[in-house]
Every structure is written in structure tokens, then in C-alpha cells.
Design brief:
By secondary structure, this protein is an alpha/beta fold. The chain has helices at 11-29, 49-58, 75-78, 129-138, 153-162, 208-215; strands at 2-6, 8-9, 33-37, 62-64, 100-105, 108-116, 143-149, 169-173, 183-185, 188-191, 196-199, 230-239, 246-254. Strands 1, 2, 3, 4, 11, 12 and 13 form a seven-stranded mixed sheet that branches. The longest helix is centred in the N-terminal third of the chain and has 19 residues, at 11-29. The radius of gyration is 17 Å and the shape is globular.
Length: 255
Amino acid sequence: MKILFIGDIVGSSGRQIVADHLSTLIEDYEVDFVIANGENAAHGKGITKRIYHQLINLGINVITMGNHTFAKREIFDFYDDVSDLLIPANIDPVDFGEYYKVYTVKNKRICVINLYGEAFMNNVGDKPYPYMDYVIENIEADYYFVDFHAESTSEKMFFAHLYKDKIDALVGTHTHVQTADERMIGQVAYITDVGMCGAVDSIIGRDFNELKENIIEGKRTHYTISSGDSFLNAVLITVDDETMMSKDIMRINRK
């Protein structure tokens, strides 16, 4: 089994490069299941119902979120109408949305879990560990896949080591910079951060000139996503069809 995880999709340029490359990636790597982080999909912050459907129609099976989950307030209006959008379990408000879902892929059950880091993050509603423990103890699945949306490198590594015998994959999101540390931690296919999909000439997706006006010149500016040539960051995880153990994790970069 092959699972493709696509890093934070940032704005229209990120959506476009996913649209340009996803079908080819699925075909080239014989992908069985696609997960993507979409918390930056709508102009860099949040997601809309239209963009949710656009991404699902491209072939993404489930979308995870992060610190910008509630940047577009319409999510409160449309969330009950969509079925494959996960909200980090321990982001405030902790009682909104679903943070895990089980999917049947090749007659196996894959549980996708969306969690949120505590260090250097805003709107933290609770620790992530009780939510992970609940899934492990109560939800039957053949494979547990975690998107851990967090700033701290050490927090992501700690989480993977803590659950190295209980979950099967942990991919970090949020920093938008792909790390070169993909490896197995126990039975866990791990990478500190998958990276992003968006403009190459940018500050993690944001327009440099707008940010310069804000930081250096002290002007009040409107958050602006950079345009131009884009790149796509993802990881491909290979899973043994019989044992459902992770065998390999590989970084993918497309321009």
C-alpha cells in the first residue's frame, strides 16, 4: 500500500501545483490513499467550502488542518456538510469538529488523526496526548496515521518516540520547510516537517514585499500570498499489505 501525504497547501499557487501534479503522482507511485494539509489553502489562512470540494475533487481523500483552522469563519457554517475535513483535536475550541476518521483502503482500516502541538502555538486548548490515547484505546484500525501540526522540532520527535510502538506514521506540518530527516522511529514512519505547496519566491508562501513593509517599515498591511513559480512538497509512505507495518518513507519535491 502507498500513502501520499501532501504538505501545507498555501493559497492559489499551492492549489494549482497540486492540481497540476497530483494525478501524475498517483499514477507514477501507484498511490492508494491521499492525505493533504489544507489549513493555508484559502489565501494562506483557513479553508472555504468551495476550496474543500476543489481539493477533494482532485483526488485527495482527507484534508487535515492546523493553527489557521478558524481563520475563515464560514467553517462553522459548512463543517457539518463535509465528511473528510479533520480539525486538530486539542486546538481551541476543543469541542468543535472531528479529529480522526477511519477509512477502508484495500480492505484495511486506516485511521487518520489530526493533532496540535503546544510549544510556540496559539489557541492551544489542551495537551495532545489524551486524544491520541483515546484513539489507540477505543478505535480499531490496522494503521494509525498522525498529522502533528506543530512548530517545535523536539515536540514532534518526542511524540513519535512516545508512541513508536502504537502508531504507524507521524508527519509534521506547520513550518512549511521540508526537513531531511525522514526515517523510521520504532515502527513509525516519521518526518519532522513535510514542507509546503506554494510559491518558490516567498517567505513560506507569503509575499516578501508585503512582509517587508510590515516588519521593516512598520506599515499595517494585508496578508498577501506570493505568486510565480511554485513547488510541491510531499512524502510517500510504503506499507506492507499483509502486516500493515510501515516499510519506508520518501520525500517528494516537484516544481
